[in-house]
Structures are given as structure tokens and as C-alpha cells.
């Protein structure tokens, strides 16, 4: 069984605002750094993304991957790899927990298995970097939207 890497961050926003940013895949290139393109391929009956194609560029690792998303609840979304050039598997989850009237603890769990041989310690360190960058970018994006009072159309989902 593959080990997962996990990290949490507190964001000054309600869970619905945080999930709104997570669900707005078209904006991922604006705040994630590694995602250069994001395209929703399939949506569920509630209009949420079910399959998303992401073009990634994380320096040494460049990939074109398709992920399948499961919207577990208003506070949890998970994804799994459908296809990739570089990865054998990828499973992730965002779990949101309200910690106050306008604060949310976001936990990001990630398990990655690459096609090329890699030491477990190095793989977990890479997972940790991905998670920490994603959480920092998510926090900055959500809080900047909250402070500007404009969600740039993020409320239509």
C-alpha cells in the first residue's frame, strides 16, 4: 500500500468560498504555478467537473494528465488518475473543516506513483513540495478574492 503525504493550512474564508476556488479549474493556471492548462472534459448532473485534463510543468517534470473527480460533500473532493505520461497513479483529496465563522482548515492528501524508479523518501519530499505549494497558492487566491469582493465569476458554479 502506498503511503500518502498530507499537510494542512488555515484560510481566512468560509468553506464554500474555498471550495469555489478549488472547483474553478479554468483559473488553476492563475494560481497553481505548475498547472499551465486546465480543461474540463466532463461534468456531472450538478455541473461540477468529473474529468479534467491538466497540462503540468513543474520544472523537471512535465506531464499531460487526466484526473477523475469525486465530489464527496460540500467539504470534500477527491481525485484519481485516469491517464498520464509520467505517473502510474495519483490520488488526492481536499478536506475542508470550518474552524470559525470565516476560517477553514484545508487538508490536502496526496499519493503519487511515478513510472520512473524513485526512492520513497525523494517521492514523499516531492509530494510535500507539491502539497505545500498548492495550499499556499490556494490560500493566496481565496483570500485575495475575499478581500477584493469579486470572485470573477466563480460564483456561477
From TrEMBL:
Signal peptide: none
Any one Pfam family match given in the protein's UniProt record, by short name: Polyketide_cyc2
Chain ranges passing through the membrane: none
InterPro entries in the cross-refs: Polyketide_cyclase/dehydratase, START-like_dom_sf
Gene3D superfamilies referenced in this protein's UniProt entry, alphabetically: 3.30.530.20
Source species, domain of life: Bacteria
SUPFAM superfamilies: Bet v1-like
UniProt-listed CDD domains: SRPBCC_2
Protein name in UniProt: SRPBCC family protein
Originating organism: Streptomyces thermogriseus
Amino acid at each position: 500500500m502506498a503511503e500518502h503525504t498530507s499537510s494542512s493550512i488555515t484560510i481566512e474564508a468560509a468553506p464554500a468560498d474555498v471550495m469555489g476556488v478549488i472547483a474553478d479549474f479554468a483559473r488553476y493556471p492563475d494560481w497553481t504555478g505548475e498547472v499551465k492548462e486546465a480543461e474540463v472534459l466532463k461534468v456531472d448532473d450538478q455541473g461540477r467537473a468529473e474529468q479534467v485534463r491538466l497540462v503540468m510543468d513543474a520544472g523537471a517534470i512535465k506531464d499531460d494528465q487526466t484526473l477523475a473527480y469525486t465530489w464527496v460533500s460540500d467539504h470534500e473532493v477527491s481525485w484519481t488518475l485516469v491517464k498520464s505520461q509520467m505517473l502510474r497513479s495519483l490520488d488526492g483529496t481536499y478536506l475542508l473543516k470550518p474552524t470559525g465563522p470565516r476560517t477553514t482548515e484545508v487538508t490536502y492528501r496526496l499519493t503519487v506513483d511515478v513510472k520512473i524508479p524513485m526512492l520513497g523518501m525523494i517521492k514523499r519530499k516531492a509530494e510535500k513540495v507539491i502539497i505545500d505549494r498548492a495550499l499556499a497558492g490556494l490560500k493566496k487566491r481565496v483570500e485575495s478574492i475575499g478581500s477584493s469582493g469579486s470572485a470573477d465569476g466563480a460564483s456561477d458554479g
